[in-house]
């Protein structure tokens, strides 16, 4: 059970690291938000599942089980709030006229009239 917890936490840390690298390396806010939104969500889920296995490795007693339930509520709220926040930030950037980066500099979206 401890090995499973270590594996889950290590895999979660890998997703957090890939998220940080994507935040640094990607060219525009749309790509960066995609990298951080997806990888952070998976990273937090895996890390907290690993933490829950550490808590439960001695058995399903009352206090331990209650603690695991509380731990598992964190990713539930993250799944509800994370994509909503990412969408709101990207929608705000789109409405402010932040253009997506393209390799050849061509437009990939048709912008509404009067927008820059």
Name the descriptors:
about 120 residues; mainly alpha; 3 helices; about 0% strand
**Strands, count:** 0
Q: How many domains comprise the coordinates?
A: 1
Give me the number of helical elements: 3
Rg is 19 Å
Task: Tell me the overall shape.
Answer: elongated
Account of the protein in words:
The protein has one domain. Helix 2 runs antiparallel to helix 3. The chain has 116 residues and is mainly alpha-helical. The model has no long low-confidence stretch (mean pLDDT 87). The longest helix is centred in the last third of the chain and has 34 residues. The chain is elongated and about 60 Å long. It is built from 3 helices and no strands.
At a glance:
With 116 residues, this protein is mainly alpha-helical. Helix 1 packs antiparallel against helix 2 and helix 2 packs antiparallel against helix 3.
